Amino acid sequence: MGRLYLIQLDGGIYTCRNCGSHLAHCDELISKAFHCRRGRAYLFNTVVNVSVGPQEERMMTTGMHMVADIFCNCCGQIVGWKYEAAHEKNQKYKEGKFILERAKMADFDGTNFYLDAHPVGSDVDDA
Ligand SMILES: [Zn+2]
């Protein structure tokens, strides 16, 4: 560990809009029903090619969470955040999961097909 290398994914993938690094596979998508200050946001089981920043307490519309911003390993922009811990019992499913902001992602082929098709998940509001 500690060496910078980029993981290449196959199939339907989401990439960093800024530099094109692969960020997540569409199979890892849990929900597209999240929102952040800059618009829509998607919840993933796992993401790749990101660094996790320091943890901080953040008040969200669904309650207090311990979160950490995540950064693209290649270009350094903030692409979303990781849920380290949730205080509310019914929000515990998000622990260890990752949010990627819709505005920070692109589809691997530039069509946004995977970004905007197949809405999944329930209606969740978060910030
Ligand atoms: Zn990037």
Describe the structure.
GO terms for molecular function: metal ion binding. The chain is mainly β and 127 residues long. The chain has one domain: Peptide methionine sulfoxide reductase (Metal Binding Protein, Guanine Nucleotide Exchange Factor, Chain A, Beta Complex). Helix content is 3%, strand content 46%. The chain has one helix and nine strands. The strands form two sheets. The protein has a six-stranded antiparallel sheet with strand order 3-4-8-7-6-5, with no helix packed on it. It is globular. The model has no long low-confidence stretch (mean pLDDT 86). Bound molecules: zinc ion. The site of zinc ion (ZN) has 8 residues, from loops.
Summarize the structure.
Helix content is 3%, strand content 46%. With 127 residues, it is mainly beta.
Topology readout:
Layout: E1 13-16, E2 22-25, E3 29-36, E4 39-44, E5 50-60, E6 63-72, E7 78-86, E8 98-101, E9 105-107, H1 113-116
Antiparallel strand pairs: 1-2, 1-9, 3-4, 4-8, 5-6, 6-7, 7-8
Bound molecules: zinc ion.
Zinc ion binds at residues 16, 18-19, 21, 72, 74-75, 77.
